[in-house]
Specification:
The complex is a heterotrimer of chains A (504), B (329) and C (122). With 504 residues, chain A is α/β, with parallel strands linked by helices. Helix content of chain A is 54%, strand content 15%. Chain A contains 15 helices and twelve strands. Classes of the chains: A alpha/beta (504), B mainly alpha (329), C alpha/beta (122). Chains in contact: A-B, A-C, B-C. Chain C: It comes from Flagellimonas chongwuensis.
């Protein structure tokens, strides 16, 4: 969010006044520096605000168009159809003993005519594999696959002896992390379109049909499509389906709900409108397998593998000068549990920050590069300044403010004014996001929910935001500490892949 | 106030502006929510009304449709929202019922004068109203082909698509005759829908797909070649063969696929010599054809070409096919 | 005395129509939206003489429900009302011992006749 711009603004006038009174020369310096810094903060604040205004505007257009285009619900009939492209669903699992059987069962009831479900057991240390073998009557499967993408050793592939689970495939492999597991899944998968999901996600029954639709145009090549992620905490879920959407009582989760509204309904909708989307959430996204493989698959050396992959795929397409696009569906398709306590949330945000930073670092050549169009001139700079740097700027703003306070150069009127402006804007942005939710796909039906969400929007900048700020800062600190790992972030080049295909 | 320095004034202005906007948005939000809740209640009430009416009209033999419809119209069908809900409910019933009840439903639709309402929105509505109107007409088999023909080449994709589906859904025979009026390429999504409608909605005689093999749009060609295979029209195999040399790779690919699935025995003689010059897409399809129709020896003939061009996709395909074709596999 | 029929179906429109039509035909109609509720009703109410069920149901699928009914009250007549028209599913249903299979979209008049026939033959 916005930052200590206006605090410093005050210093300028103040300083001039001081100068006129004939201050000593060294103060002239300080005043000068203060003034420059103040202006920088002000400019930053202004850019952030106008960015938000634009994104609100574009999101509005995008949502309106989507609603108009998709008001008929005539696709449902297609679920019986036999000629839709086949999809491979890839779901990595690591130590999921407790829920794995239930989760896989709910995946198996997905409403789509032709799909295979590939569960990748990423070297779990608990009984995940045994549970799967037992519950789904798995036996060894010897069908052919090639390690076109590098991954840890695949120990065995399993299939079910039961007809009702004939679409299920389970890969047992050595542990290598989520990205590595997905790469193994890609190697084993049969179909040309892959859908990567978190195994514990709750999907709407027509989710796959909605996500595949963008692929089926014949104007532009679609390399990926993604949707809006919703928060499943407190919702009533039965047999892998959302039965009733409830607003959680916990402030922490409600604040995240508002955050998700802002990120998805305003942020990503707008980016999708200008075709500058850099991230399809790892929880649920569909990809063109060939492009994924050509780009080298998931990068196991970053914590932000979902963002990094999409950026790399886009970069590849751009370098090849292929006309392509990335689809985005504003319907609520995927529900996921978000962190319900501060510790886990801290860890998650810490990771997100590192993921963003790593991706931007790997692809730093795209930054401000007109060759990459919207991506180079808008998306990457946006992520740099407003996602990665925002917490830093905010933090330094606070430091600056403290410094001024120590120097005794604070005009409290301005402090008050500034605080009110940034607070006002933060709340305005949140309630606009709430309004968009109301306007688009309203999921929280009760009027009391609306009141509670509004209240949360007012409290969020005071209680929730400072914590997020701290988590992001910590992420940056960890990043600098572990900087070495940046060096060996080499990606699997296509040359290597070719070699593997040929030698095998 | 007047003696404030200007930055403070700017700040104050923005504080006021933001808080004003917050108040406006919050009130709009609350009003909208309450309005929607109230509307939902009304909708539900009205839905019950129309449900009762429909069930009576469908299953009560003593029901006088003409008279009752008139009363219902005056009592419950005055607002646009009510008409919309009535149409929606009729569509739901239409989807689940067949036989006599389905015919009765169409009579009810007319008796309630909802057809005039729909035709009006087709003529005067915005593009999304038009799309919806065409959709309703096609679902309820209201024949307005002349009206709908205007939208076959509409600039809005959604309207265009609905117009296309309309022709197939309402046709008694020759469901594809609208192809002759088509000037824009069909999307893959539309092709899927068309195939679906042909297989599951259209009930007339299966059309002769070879009629459209001279069409100027390549997606129509693609569709026809695919359909000849899907409906097993073996007699048109000779008509497909020339498309193995079509300039569009998608068409060539579809020709290979269809001929493979139709078990055309000369397919391999035709395509194997072309292999080295083909695009990646078609190459993959040829490998598949060799796997199903040929033997390991034939497959090995393709190897030199593969080693020349380093395409991993085709190579992967080749290697998998080879492994599957091993006698001991 | 009126014969009592249990309908297990989650589509409100279909429920309403069936209820309306079968009540008109002179039956006593009980409705369950899902398999779980259906089992409860079957446990408590032994006046039920026919079950009409969908196959795709929340909580407990139609197939499981049919198996359960067959195990507990083997003579209870069952009619399946389902959107699926795949041969495999239909034969599977008959193998499990259902008395009739009607596909959606359905004709209410035909359904009414089949209900009558099924009840009479028991």
């Amino acid at each position: 969010m916005a930052d200590p711009t206006y605090v410093l603004e005050c210093r300028k006038k103040d300083a001039t006044q001081l100068l006129n009174l004939g201050e000593p020369v060294e103060n002239l310096y300080i005043n000068h520096i203060t003034e420059i810094i103040s202006w920088l903060f002000l400019a930053y604040g202004a850019i952030v605000c106008s960015g938000y205004v634009f994104s609100a505007f574009f999101s509005y257009l995008e949502i309106r168009e989507y609603k108009r285009k998709n008001g008929l619900k005539d696709e449902i009939a297609l679920l019986q159809s036999t000629n839709l492209p086949s999809i491979s669903i890839l779901a990595p699992a690591y130590n999921e003993e407790a829920n794995i059987v239930e989760n896989v069962r709910s995946l198996l009831t997905m409403n789509y005519p032709s799909c295979e479900i590939v569960i990748i057991n990423d070297g779990s240390k608990d009984g995940t594999m045994e549970k799967l073998i037992e519950s789904f009557h798995l036996v060894k499967d010897d069908s052919v696959y090639y390690n076109i993408l590098p991954s840890q050793n695949i120990k065995q592939i399993y299939k079910s002896t039961f007809k009702s689970f004939k679409n299920l495939k389970v890969v047992d492999k050595a542990n290598g992390g989520k990205a590595d597991a997905l790469n193994a899944g890609i190697n084993v998968s049969k179909h040309d379109i892959i859908c990567c999901i978190d195994v514990d996600c709750v999907l709407e029954s027509d989710a796959l049909l909605k996500l595949i639709k963008p692929f089926l145009n014949n104007e532009k090549k679609v390399i990926a499509s993604g949707g809006i992620i919703r928060i499943a905490n407190s919702c009533i879920i039965e047999d892998g389906k959302i039965v009733e959407v409830k607003l959680p009582d916990k402030f922490l989760i409600r604040a995240q709900i508002i955050e998700y509204f802002r990120a998805f309904l305003m942020g990503r909708m707008a980016w999708s409108r200008v075709d500058g989307l850099l991230l399809i959430s790892g929880a649920f996204g569909m990809f063109d397998k060939e492009t994924v493989i050509e780009a080298g698959g998931y990068n196991p050396n970053t914590v932000g593998e979902d963002m990094e992959l999409l950026v790399r795929m886009r970069r590849l397409m751009r370098n090849r000068k292929v006309d392509y696009t990335v689809g985005f569906i504003p319907d609520p398709l995927c529900w996921t549990e978000v962190p319900h306590n501060w510790t886990i949330l801290h860890r998650q945000r810490n990771r997100w920050t590192r993921g963003t930073a790593e991706t931007l670092w790997i692809h730093r050549r795209m930054m401000f590069n007109p060759k990459y169009g919207v991506l180079g001139l808008l998306s990457t700079p946006y992520w740099l300044f407003f996602e990665w740097f925002a917490p830093l700027v905010e933090f330094f703003g606070i430091l600056f403010f403290i410094a001024l306070m120590i120097l005794g150069q604070i005009n409290w009127m301005f402090v008050l004014g500034f605080t009110m402006v940034s607070y006002g804007f933060a709340v305005l942005y949140s309630v606009t996001a709430l309004f968009f939710e109301e306007f688009s796909f309203q999921q929280y039906k009760k009027t009391t929910y609306t009141y509670k969400l509004i209240l949360t929007a007012f409290l969020e900048p005071i209680i929730f935001h400072p914590f997020i700020l701290w988590s992001s800062l910590k992420g940056n600190i960890d990043l600098i500490r572990g900087r070495k790992s940046w060096g060996d972030m080499s990606r699997a080049g296509l040359g290597k892949i070719r070699e593997e295909v040929i030698t095998k | 106030m007047p003696d404030w320095p200007w930055p403070l004034k700017v700040t104050a202005f923005f504080v006021c502006l933001f808080f004003l906007l917050v108040i406006v948005t919050v009130s709009a939000l609350i009003i909208l929510r309450r309005y929607k809740n109230a509307r939902d209640r009304k909708k539900k009430l009205f839905q019950d009304n129309i449900d009762t009416f429909l069930n009576n009209a469908l299953f009560d033999e003593t029901f006088n449709l003409k008279k009752e419809a008139k009363t219902f119209r005056f009592q419950f069908l005055t607002f646009k929202l009510q008409k919309k809900i009535a149409v929606r409910q009729i569509l739901v019933y239409n989807e689940n019922l067949k036989g006599e009840s389905s015919i009765t439903l169409k009579n009810i639709f007319r008796a309630l004068e909802l057809d005039t309402f729909i035709l009006d929105s087709l003529k005067n509505g915005r593009w999304y109203d038009k799309a919806r109107a065409i959709y309703v007409l096609s679902e309820l088999h209201v024949k307005e082909s002349k009206q709908v023909a205007l939208y076959l080449n509409d600039k809005h994709e959604t309207v265009r698509a609905q117009a296309i589906y309309f022709y197939i859904k309402t046709a008694e025979n020759k469901p594809l005759s609208f192809f002759s009026k088509l000037k824009k390429e069909l999307t893959l999504w539309e092709l899927i829908q068309l195939e679906d409608c042909l297989k599951f909605v259209y009930e007339g005689a299966t059309p002769d797909f070879s009629l459209w093999l001279k069409h100027e749009l390549s997606t129509v060609l693609l569709f026809s070649i695919r359909m000849i295979q899907q409906f097993n029209q073996f007699e048109h195999i000779p008509a497909i063969v020339p498309f193995l040399d079509h300039p569009n790779e998608q068409v060539r690919k579809q020709a290979v696929t269809s001929l493979r699935k139709l078990n055309y025995e000369k397919l391999l003689d035709e395509v194997m010599p072309k292999f080295s010059k083909e695009t990646r897409l078609v190459k993959k399809e040829i490998i598949k054809a060799v796997e199903t129709l040929g033997d390991l020896q034939m497959l090995h003939k393709l190897k030199p070409t593969l080693e020349e061009n380093m395409e991993w996709q085709t190579q992967l395909m080749y290697l998998s096919a080879e492994k599957r074709m091993q006698p001991n596999f | 005395m009126k014969k009592r029929i249990l309908i297990i179906e989650d589509n409100p429109m279909v429920v309403k129509s069936l209820e309306f039509k079968l009540t008109k035909d002179g039956y006593d109609v009980v409705v369950a939206e899902d398999g779980r509720k259906a089992l409860e009703i079957l446990k408590e109410d032994d006046a039920i003489e026919l079950v009409i069920t969908d196959l795709m149901l929340p909580y407990i699928t139609g197939t499981e429900l049919i198996e359960h009914i067959r195990n507990n009250t083997p003579t209870m007549p069952i009619i399946v009302l389902s959107t699926s028209n795949q041969e495999e599913i239909i034969t599977d249903a008959f193998m499990m011992g259902v008395n009739d299979f009607i596909t959606k979209p359905f004709s209410p008049n035909e359904l009414s006749l089949r209900v009558k026939r099924t009840i009479e033959s028991h």
